[in-house]
């Protein structure tokens, strides 16, 4: 832990030279510090494929506790994990979590190297029923994971996560299974979707898939949305990266809103959405 702290302090001195590393996380202006960090990253041309700015989002709430999310360039998302009594406090807490993760991402151990890939594949094998021999077979899950890591050598884990989130959502959405049924190889699927970032067009396609599922199994979107809400809340309170859970929630909410906009009058749309989510609350 001491060595990790020393590494973080060294990184702070490099990317935030005007800050005192010993007091950086006690600084009340942590929001400005996070912005400064990513502006420096962009100046160094070490930006992510999906360039952008640090974006904050606060959930509508009549009173505390308040919830705030912060999305970093590249799409990684974090939220406040403490119980915050004001929106400003929630925003600062979310920024603190994002800054710590951004700094950790700069550590050498977060770079994808040959050694990192070997360790990651071994961990994946130990947590599944696969074997190390599967790593050389792209038709297996372990092999596909190995192939994706090899294709992203030199990138950081946050950069790799931006790519992985697409495949996580495609798996959750059922699209990967459908592609396998068309006899597309895993390599073909990976190569195809590696060219795309998660944008409004892809979200709309996934929402359409869920609308079709709803026609076959009425109520499935509301059920999945309740699960996504719960997962997002639990992950936020645990200080985890949130994008997968947040994207699921937004895709399902989009699908639900499109269904209601076609079936009911606009004036009652919000009431129906609240009713659909009442099981979660």
- Report the major sheet: 3 strands, antiparallel
CATH topology of the largest domain: Double Stranded RNA Binding Domain
Lateral strand order in the biggest sheet? 1-2-3
Secondary-structure-based class equals mainly alpha
Our Rg estimate from Cα atoms comes to 21 Å
Organism: Pelodiscus sinensis (Chinese softshell turtle)
InterPro entries: Autophagy-related_EPG5 (IPR051436), LIX1 (IPR029270)
Protein name: Limb and CNS expressed 1
Pfam families: LIX1
Protein architecture, described:
It comes from Pelodiscus sinensis. Belongs to the LIX1 family. It holds the Pfam family LIX1. With 281 residues, the protein is mostly helical. 59% of the residues lie in helices and 4% in strands. The protein has twelve helices and three strands. The protein has helices at residues 2-15, 30-43, 87-104, 114-126, 141-150, 157-173, 175-181, 186-193, 200-216, 220-237, 243-263, 269-276, and strands at 55-58, 68-71, 77-79. The chain has a three-stranded antiparallel beta sheet. Helix 9 packs across helix 11 and helix 10 (220-237) packs antiparallel against helix 11 (243-263). It is globular and about 55 Å long.
């Amino acid at each position: 832990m001491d060595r990790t702290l020393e590494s973080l302090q060294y990184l702070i001195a490099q990317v935030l030279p005007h800050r005192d590393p010993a007091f950086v996380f006690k600084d009340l202006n942590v929001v400005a510090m996070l912005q400064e960090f990513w502006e420096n990253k962009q100046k160094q041309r070490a930006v992510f494929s999906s360039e952008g700015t640090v974006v904050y989002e606060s959930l509508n709430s009549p009173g505390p506790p308040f919830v705030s999310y912060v999305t970093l360039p590249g799409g990684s998302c974090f939220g406040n994990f403490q119980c915050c009594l004001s929106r400003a406090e929630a925003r600062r807490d979310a920024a603190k979590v994002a800054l710590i993760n951004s700094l950790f991402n700069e550590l050498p151990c977060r770079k994808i190297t040959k050694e990192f890939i070997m360790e990651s594949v071994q961990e994946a094998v130990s947590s599944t029923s696969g074997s190390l021999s599967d790593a050389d077979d792209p038709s297996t899950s372990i092999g596909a994971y190995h192939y994706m890591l090899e294709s992203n050598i030199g990138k950081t884990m946050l950069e790799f996560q931006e790519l992985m989130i697409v495949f996580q959502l495609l798996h959750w959405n059922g699209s990967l299974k459908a592609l396998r049924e068309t006899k597309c190889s895993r390599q073909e699927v990976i190569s195809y979707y590696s060219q795309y970032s998660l944008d409004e067009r892809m979200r709309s396609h996934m929402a359409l898939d869920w609308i079709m599922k709803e026609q076959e199994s009425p109520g499935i979107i509301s059920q999945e949305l309740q699960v996504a809400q719960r997962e997002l809340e639990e992950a936020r309170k645990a200080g985890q990266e949130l994008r997968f859970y947040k994207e699921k929630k937004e895709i399902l909410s989009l699908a639900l809103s499109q269904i209601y906009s076609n079936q009911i009058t606009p004036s009652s749309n919000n009431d129906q959405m609240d009713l659909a989510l009442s099981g979660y609350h």
